[in-house]
TrEMBL record:
The lineage of its organism: Bacteria, Pseudomonadati, Bacteroidota, Flavobacteriia, Flavobacteriales. InterPro entries: AB_hydrolase_fold (IPR029058), Hydrolase_4 (IPR022742), MAG_DAG_Lipase (IPR051044). Keywords: Hydrolase. It comes from Flavobacterium aquicola. One of its GO terms (molecular function) is hydrolase activity. Gene3D superfamilies: alpha/beta hydrolase. Residues 43-247 form the Serine aminopeptidase S33 domain. SUPFAM superfamilies: alpha/beta-Hydrolases. This is Alpha-beta hydrolase superfamily lysophospholipase.
Length: 317
């Protein structure tokens, strides 16, 4: 599949290609594939999949892979970041399988551009998506391994809510997927990242606002159904590396503690649900003082994260 690239908003050698997908229940759909090639002759690459209320801006992470001889690709999924259209509610989905077509298209382009060894790298919701994707694409030869950065394998709510509130909201989502829910996420996480507050990263606050847009009940159902698949046990036939912070943090007001743990997910859930993933090769690694997006943690932590990743890739591929 031939696509046409233009300069990306990141500049610095990053290019983007907008790919039209089939229309869905909201109308027109596009995805955006971002690319930067390593200066080292190589046929291996990374395909990065972002999380919820997110898009690809982690340029420093890309540069680490480029230095190691990996071509780097990232995908802004439908209704996220570069791919949001006027007819769409940002982040909206009824089924996580909607994203499988997006990944399929990206992988076909990546292979057509000469890459023969492809690693999927998913953060948070992206980690959940690529895990489920690998389970249903077992005979698909277009990717070779998975790296999950703080994968969203369960809702970060008390046990009783997981057994009562989430199933009720999921049921509502099946009946009325467009029902808006006044459920948000802590704005402190965004403040811990962005240079306008306490963080070291500059990114588009329209594409990744501190307070995420309200979600639909259909989105809750989509995520819940994905979580149920994980909880029942899931099998993939590719090596998988699952990375997470060693602890979660729950500050009720701004605190430097935000830099010392995962402020979005319960890391105990990640550890427990990872046990239910069957793979020919699986490693689960925790990092002390790591943030939710491990590659946005303080420099010494992210250096250790990348050291772990490259050591794993060396022995797994």
């Amino acid at each position: 599949m031939k696509v046409y690239y233009k300069e990306d908003v990141l500049k610095n050698g990053f290019k983007q290609a907008v790919i039209t997908q089939q229309d869905d229940y909201e109308g027109n759909v596009v995805i955006t594939l971002i690319r930067k090639s390593t200066k080292i002759k190589s046929a291996k690459c990374i395909l990065y999949i972002h999380g919820f209320n997110d898009y690809f801006f982690q340029e420093t992470a890309a540069e680490e892979f480029l230095k190691k001889g990996y071509n780097f690709y990232a995908l802004d999924l439908r209704k996220y970041g570069r791919s949001i259209l006027r007819n769409q509610k940002p982040n909206n989905a009824k089924h996580l399988s909607e994203y499988y077509e997006d990944i399929d298209q990206a992988l076909h382009v990546i292979r057509d551009e000469g890459n023969t060894q492809v690693v999927l790298f998913g953060h948070s919701t992206g980690g959940l998506i690529i895990t489920l994707y690998a389970a249903v694409r077992k005979q698909f030869p277009l990717f070779d391994a998975l790296i999950c950065n703080s994968p969203f394998y369960d809702f970060n709510v008390p046990w009783i809510q997981k057994k009562t509130v989430i199933p009720i909201l999921s049921f509502l989502g099946r009946q009325n997927p467009n029902l808006a829910l006044p459920i948000g996420f802590s704005k402190f996480y965004g403040k811990s990242l962005h240079t306008s507050d306490y963080g070291e990263w500059d990114y588009n606050l329209q594409w990744k606002p501190h307070t995420a847009p309200s979600i639909n009940a259909g989105w809750i159902n989509a995520i819940h159904e994905g979580h149920l698949l994980i909880s029942r046990g899931i099998s993939i036939n590719k090596p998988i590396l699952i990375l997470h912070s060693e602890r979660s943090v729950y500050p009720s007001k701004w605190s430097e503690e935000m830099f010392e743990g995962d402020a979005i997910l319960n890391v105990k859930d990640i550890i427990e649900k990872s046990k239910l993933i069957d793979s020919p090769s699986k490693e689960v690694v925790g990092f002390k003082s790591a943030m939710h997006d491990l590659v946005l943690s303080k420099l010494p932590i992210r250096n250790l994260v990348f050291k772990t990743i490259f050591e794993w890739l060396e022995k797994s591929l």
